[in-house]
Each structure stands twice: as structure tokens, then as C-alpha cells.
Amino acid sequence: MRILIIGAGGVGSAAVRIAVRRPFFDALVVADYDPARPQALVDELGDPRLVAAEIDASSSSAVAAVVREHAITHVLNAVDPRFVMPIFDGCFEAGATYLDMAMSLSAPHPDHPHEQTGVMLGDEQFAAAAQWEAAGRLALVGMGVEPGLSDVFARYAEDHLFSSIEELGVRDGANLTVEGYDFAPSFSIWTTIEECLNPPVIFERDRGWFTTARFSEPEVFEFPEGIGPVECVNVEHEEVILMPRWTKARRVTFKYGLGEEFITVLRTLHTLGLDSTAPLDVKGVSVAPRDVVAAALPDPATLGDRMQGKTCAGVYVTGTGTDGAPRAVYLYHVVDNEWSMAEYNSQAVVWQTAVNPVLALELLASGAWSGSGVLGPEAFDAQPFLDLLAADAPAGYGSPWGLEERDAGAA
Amino acid sequence: MRILIIGAGGVGSAAVRIAVRRPFFDALVVADYDPARPQALVDELGDPRLVAAEIDASSSSAVAAVVREHAITHVLNAVDPRFVMPIFDGCFEAGATYLDMAMSLSAPHPDHPHEQTGVMLGDEQFAAAAQWEAAGRLALVGMGVEPGLSDVFARYAEDHLFSSIEELGVRDGANLTVEGYDFAPSFSIWTTIEECLNPPVIFERDRGWFTTARFSEPEVFEFPEGIGPVECVNVEHEEVILMPRWTKARRVTFKYGLGEEFITVLRTLHTLGLDSTAPLDVKGVSVAPRDVVAAALPDPATLGDRMQGKTCAGVYVTGTGTDGAPRAVYLYHVVDNEWSMAEYNSQAVVWQTAVNPVLALELLASGAWSGSGVLGPEAFDAQPFLDLLAADAPAGYGSPWGLEERDAGAA
């Protein structure tokens, strides 16, 4: 296997740090628009399989050229979702397997944005599914932590824990704090704005996909391992698109544990038009407000050593257990920032995102996972993934996941 | 009298619209960095006393040159407070009387910003007071509505209503709404951020000036004429600097009726660093976040015909009445946007700011007001000002003020 990771930002760099500890691949090219970033990583890690490259991720032919130049077999897209389509298309053109952690972007319904879906997340990618399948090529989409590990949990729940699923409710929460900052998001603010301010999408089997008002259905969810209660609200997320395609769940939702302060920040940015990606004339200079917001905040990938706390990704599953009785389960994965910094010099959220696509690549390398077309993580067997994640290093990734039985009556 | 108004924005334009109805001056030059703006005003109003000019308000010598070229006797500064010092200095240099509506900017105390004052509003101007006085020249500072009319009310209270004043509490509130906008400030957001996010200043006779935390001492104040209750908080404002210099009040405060939503917006902008005036590198472009916020919002001067409601400026005065009994009075001035749009094609907040310096110019022209040095509005007799404001047109400005007796026990 010869891997190309596009993007040497927080998640891309963490994926490289994780991958170099594994023997499953022959070469790993790290490419960025700024070639100094991957070069620094290559110099630091000193793994002879690593190569740094420059790439223009906005051009499918540029992506295809790098794939061909390095005889790449598998590409991991680790740049922001604006670049999904050129990388996806470049991989098809050059014959490489494609993986990403966020899908092609949505566009709201022009007339009823908070009731009906418009262009949905991944629509552009699924439009090419038949073509990928016919060519025997694989695009494994949404293979980070959320989407990604959450989708693996959904598959696991359906195959091993439930005879029928009422709801797959992804619930994401953290108790991370950053010393020295009043406000410092632990993940890309550009992406957070995108997913939180777009109309939230919900799936119901008898209704299909539909959207709601922003921050709808607030709910205090109790997160495990000391994180505790966090206010969660509906946001737009890939799982709601992916899970209904490969599971039989009656309802799929995604609620993000933003907490009150973050919700207020996002609401205010929207009210003031500062979430906009459309360039504005500011005293003769053209600039998009959302880029200004991102530039005003610290880069989340650099905050690991000032961060404290844990982040949790998981799926709250309700329905009927394999024994025929009502069941409610929270399947989850917690990363403690102290651990990820000590072990990988990566902050928790970034590390938790990056470990999953590396693990998926390892399963594709071993043949434990295989397929063709445009597939989500829940299209594959969950067991080898979860086993390898939890197994102690060096056999596995040493990062256990958890299952909490919850009160099925309350669900 | 030959007047120069610098700035043909919202307030400058309204001042011109108000002034052209008055016979007290011989010439009025309207100057702006963009000469098309005053020219449009001159063309529209068709008053032969009006002349449009171009000016660089950031240069004292450029200001002095325009003053000399047009033989200006009185200059009204109607641009944002960043330009106070060059205009103030240019007027002194060229021998013109100077008026403004906001004073030279403050800088917080370097070590204890929320306890002690640093550079105070107007400090730079008062530093030149002896020089102005020695030359027999007048700088009438803070002569808008707040500061301005509020300071006139303070003088009136001390001279006519109270034998001793416990507190002069400026209270500003409105019930304005703007159709079609979730959030549209009715006054310059640049200035609002400046005055609300700087440490609020308070004066106490036995302690001097000191500062507090942002948005301190929240209080619901009942505004008259149907505006009703509005949450007010301490902000930095010129009255707190001016009133103690010419009245004997024991305490002076300024509370702004921001309302909860606006407070949240300002807090959030500050938390995210978006209030900053320091340029930021945004993808290779240099831009100050506060300028981006201003550019993302509609220009308040253009919102008059979508606005509804009233704005109120006033001073809540507590102390001992002239009869020796406890007294509490709210002296106020309300402008209804519907009236100011119909009468002057100016929105209420802008009109209310602009009428006061024009009226002050008229009093200086008639000799009812005269003086030298750097003086606040409370250094002059309040009676002719308030009489002329309330008198029906064409004798006066047709905009009555009010006096509400309040429960002195509650004060």
C-alpha cells in the first residue's frame, strides 16, 4: 500500500504520527499547499517511508498527477471539505482508493431551508457511486471519528446488540478547557460554523431526510468517564446521511454537545453575518468574514499543551435488544488530552479524528475490509475495526471504546 | 459665522439638514474624504450658503488649510473619534472655534484596567486647555446628545432644581426596531464597541475617577413616552469626565440601555477578539476585525425608513431639591423616528445627535453662549439652550424635552 495524505494541518499531521508506528504500508506521501509543513513532519519523524510533496488540492488534475507520480494506491483527504470534490475526482481519474473524514458540502433548500433538504452532504459524491462501482474502485467516505467511528458503532449495534433499532443518535461532547483563552475551539471553527449553522438534518424511515431550525431539540446528555452532562443540539452531520443507507434504524440524528456558550457564539456570528463565506469589501480590501473569525482565534491544532480534559464521540442507540426486550446503549470512545499529548503530541480531538482513517487503511491493506463504490464505514464489518482500535499496542491502537447500558425506559 | 462641518456621514448630513433651516450663519462648508458625499447633499438641499469640499481629517495641517481657505470661524467635527486630535489641533492652528460630539480616545490602565483609569476620554484635549484659554479660543467638546444635551440637563438640574446633587446618572435607552434585520445597530457599531468594551468609568467626589468591570451594575431603567423598561449597564462615556468639572455632583455615572441581546453580541465579539482594531493577517490580506464587523452590518444612517420606535437621552438626578427635600428627577429628550424621518429625512438617533451642536452654534452666533478654553456643555447656561430646543419652529427647533419627578425614596 502506498498512501497519500493530502493536508499537513492538525488532523493530517496526527494521521502521519499515528501511521508511522504501523508496519502495514510501504510508502506515505504527505502533501500540502505549503511544502514546508509536510517537510517539517518528515524531518521530525525520520521514517524512511515518508515523503513530503506540494499539492494544489483544489485541482483534480493536480491531485491525479501527484497520485501517478508516487504510484499511490490510497489517498486520505485531510483538508477542509471545500476540497472534497477535486480530490475525490482526482483519485477516480488516477485509479486510487479515496478516503475522507467529511463529505461534499450541502446547500440549503432555496425556499424552505429549515423544513426540507436541498443539496445534501455527500450528494455530489453519491452521484458518482455507480461509476466508482463499475470501475471496481472504492471511495470510503466519512471515515474520521464523526462521521467514521460513530458509523462503525452503528453497524456494531445493528449486527450484535439489537434486533431492531428505533434511533441511532450520535452524541458528541467534551469537557476540554484551554488555559489562557476565554474562548478557543478545539476543532476548526470554519468547519464548526459550517456544520452548526447549516440547517440540521434528521432522518426518519417513513419520512426520509428533512431539516429543522438551528440548534433544535436541545437535550442534556450525560457523557461517560467524568465528562458529565453537556447541552446537545441538532446539527448537520454526515452520519444522518450515511447510517440510513446501510442500517435499518427508524430514525437517525446527530446532536453536538456545544454547550450554551458556544451556541451563543455561533448564534451571534450568524446574526451579525460573520459566518458568511462571501467576500465583503472592508475599506477596499476583499475578505470573507468567516475567514476573519478563524484568523482571530488560535489554531486549534497548536493548543494541545494548554488543553485539559476529555472528548467523547459515540452513538446512543435505542430499540429492541437481541433478547426482544427494550434496550438503550451508548457506544462511545473517549480520548484524554493528557494521554494523546503524551503519546502522540496530538491534541485529543485531532488525534481522535485521525486514528480512524489510519486504522481503516490498515484494514484495507490486510483485506479485512474491501469493497467498491462510494461506501460509508457502516458498509463494513465493525468487529475487526473495534478490535484493532482497542487492542494494546503494538498489535492494536491501544485506545479502548466503551459500551454503557442505559435505562431503556427513559429512552 | 462661517461653519465647516467635517464628515458627511449620518450625523454630519443630519446637522446640515437641520442647519439649513436656520438663518444664523453666513456660510456652511461640508467636507468629507469623499467629496461626492457633501456634493450630493449640497445639490439636494439647494441652499446658496452651502459649499462642498474634500478634506483629510487625519491631518491637522489639511484641516487648517481648509479652515483658512474658506475663512471658517467655527468647525463641527462629525467624524469618528479617531480624528478628534488632528481636527482639534488644526482648528487651534487656524484660529477657529472647535466643536465635537465625542472626545479624544482613552487607553486603559496598563495593569489594572478595570479598577483604575489610564488615559481618560478627552485627556489629550484638556492637556491643551490653558493654551486655548490663553489664546482666547473656544473648544466646546462633547456637544452632541450624549455627551451634549445630557450635560446641558446636568447644568439645568444644578442651577434650577437641586440645592445639592447626590448623583448625575445619564441613562440612555430606546425601543427602536429595524424591519428586515435580525440585528441592526441604530448607531455606529465601531463607536458602540469602543464605548461599551472599554472599562466603564465612574466618578465619585471623594475618590475621583475609577473604572469597573464591563457591563457592571446592571439596572432596569424605566424610560418615558412608551419606551418602557430597558436593561442598562455602565459604559465608558464623556459625561462622567465632563460633569464633575463644572458641577458639584457627588457621583456621576453613565448607563447605556443596551438590552440583553446587544450585551451578548458585544461580549461575544470581545471573547472572539473581533472587537480588535489591530490588523490581522487573513490569508495574506491585512484587516482589522472591528472594521469587518462594521462592514458586515448595515450602515445605521441608511436604516431610517425601516426603523420604528423612539430613542431617549437623559439624566436621572438624585439629591436634595431647592426646598430641602429629597428629590429624584429624570430630565430627558425623546425623538420618535417617524417624526425625524418625516421632518428631516434623518433617523432618530442620528437626528438627536446632530441637532444639539447646530443649536450650540446658534447660541454662539447670537452671543447667548461665549467662552474660551476647552469647555463642556455644562460650562454654559442651560436655559437658552433648552428654550430654543423646545420652542416651535421657526423660532426654535420644535423638539421638546421633558422632566419627570420620580420617587425620591426609591433613589
Automatic annotation (TrEMBL), chains A, B:
Record's keyword annotation contains ATP-binding: yes
Cross-referenced Pfam families: Sacchrp_dh_C, Sacchrp_dh_NADP
The keyword Transport is annotated on this UniProt entry: no
GO molecular function ontology, one term from the record: ATP binding
Signal peptide: none
Stretches assigned to the Saccharopine dehydrogenase NADP binding domain: 3-139
All copies of domain Saccharopine dehydrogenase-like C-terminal, residue ranges: 144-390
Keywords: ATP-binding, Nucleotide-binding
The organism's place on the tree of life at top rank: Bacteria
Listed name of the protein: ATP-binding protein
Organism: Arthrobacter bussei
